[in-house]
Amino acid sequence: MPEVDVEIGGKVFSVACQDGEEAYLRSAAKMLDTEATVVLGQIGRMPPERMLLMAGLMLADKTAALEDELRDVQDKVAAQEKALHSAEERLADRARRISELQQAGPRTELPDQITDGLAELAARAEALADELDSAAAG
User: Fold this and answer.
1) In 10 A of CB 46, how many CB atoms?
2) What is the pLDDT of residues 21-64, one digit of tens each?
3) 36: which of 55, 77, 130, 137 fits an S-S bond (Cβ 3.0–4.6 Å)?
4) In 3-state terms, what secondary structure has residue 6?
């Protein structure tokens, strides 16, 4: 098990890790060192344990904020996926309806309401023409 020397807040610590995790350990130590530097800049000199505690708490706070943001983004993605799924279903329904209409072929018969309305209109036109003929003859 390799040991890696990391510097956090001006103090060197020797930390053991699994083979292949050295780069990850150095990266994590660098994040902790960044927070420790902020703590030391604000508070000044303090025991290493307290410095590590404060730096760890600051990282935990940032992590919690990022987790909240992640949940918000996941909720937005879920809502978008739901809307997309709904739109895809509507599109598939319309495609099915278009296909059904194409398979049925062109419509040649008119609905009863239209034919009835045209018949009534024709009857009125004939009655009006008869009245005009009668008035012109009279």
Assistant:
1) 15
2) 999 999 999 999 999 999 999 988 889 899 999 999 999 999 99
3) 55
4) strand
For residue 27, what are its two tokens? 């990266």
What does the alpha-carbon distance between residue 29 and residue 14 come to, in Å, rounded to a whole number?
Answer: 11
76: amino acid identity, one letter: K
Model pLDDT, residue 105: 78
Give the Cα separation of 33 and 10 in Å (integer): 8
Helices 22-43 and 48-104: crossing angle in degrees, nearest 10, is 120
Q: Residue 138's pLDDT is what?
A: 64
End-to-end CA distance of the chain: 123
Q: How many CB atoms lie within 10 A of CB 91?
A: 10
Q: What CA–CA distance (Å, rounded) separates 29 from 5?
A: 10
Residue 111 — φ and ψ, nearest 5°?
-60, 155
Residue with tokens 């020797």: 14
